[in-house]
Amino acid sequence: VNNFSIEEYPDLHDPIGLVVFTGWNDAANSASNAAHFITKSLNARRFASLAEEPFYDFTKNPPAVSVSPSGERNLSWPNPEFFFVKQTDLERDLVIAIAAEPDLRWRTFSQSYVEMFESLNVSLVISLGALLAESSHRRPIHVVGSSADPDIEQRLQFRRSSYEGPTGILGALNFALQQADVPAISLWASVPHYI
């Protein structure tokens, strides 16, 4: 799989993909916090990362320096990471991809994701996003789902999206998945604008 550093190649059973990007698609860090919670609570294991150099402008997405408790300095780059979950109590395995929204080469970036999902036989990709809205923290969060797959749309009673305009990486990735005949669902939460 191009552009990836693969630490181990998991043997998965009918996996579902879960994709989250920080940045424009992630109001109040809602989607990324959900993905990190799932990753931690299900003991997901990192198995691959995508090379960051071709896709990020480091003046916009700089690496971060941290200091360990022993005083050692570390530098972490904004590289996309892939995790997997295999649990006997789950009907299907899970592949979780978490990344900062890339700055450059969205088509190549999206195609890299498609290739990874195809190599793992992922049969459905769910992307999570969040947007700021005129909503209250005292009410349940409104979540809207969409899919370009007519069968999924009908089964889950999604309304076909009529949105036209600029899109983030989730729109580009979902289009690439659609072109590759990989079913995809996009779930967006409306987050109170004051959070």
Keyphrases for this structure?
alpha/beta; PSMG2_sf; PAC2 family protein; 8-stranded mixed sheet; Proteasome_assmbl_chaperone_2; Rossmann fold
Give structural notes.
The longest helix is centred in the middle third of the chain and has 14 residues, at 106-119. An eight-stranded mixed beta sheet has the order 1-3-6-7-2-8-10-9, sandwiched between helices. It has helices at 30-41, 106-119, 150-155, 169-179; strands at 4-6, 16-22, 45-50, 64-67, 73-76, 81-85, 94-100, 124-133, 142-146, 184-192. A hairpin with an 8-residue loop joins strand 6 and strand 7 (94-100). It is α/β, with parallel strands linked by helices and 195 residues long. The protein is globular. It contains four helices and ten strands; from the N terminus they run ββαβββββαββααβ. Helix 2 packs across helix 4. It has one domain: Rossmann fold (3-Layer(aba) Sandwich), CATH 3.40.50.10900. This is PAC2 family protein. It comes from marine metagenome.
Secondary structure elements and pairings:
Blueprint: E1 4-6, E2 16-22, H1 30-41, E3 45-50, E4 64-67, E5 73-76, E6 81-85, E7 94-100, H2 106-119, E8 124-133, E9 142-146, H3 150-155, H4 169-179, E10 184-192
Parallel strand pairs: 2-7, 2-8, 8-10
Antiparallel strand pairs: 1-3, 3-6, 4-5, 6-7, 9-10
Helix pairs in contact: 2-4
Protein name: PAC2 family protein
InterPro entries: Proteasome_assmbl_chaperone_2, PSMG2_sf
Organism: marine metagenome
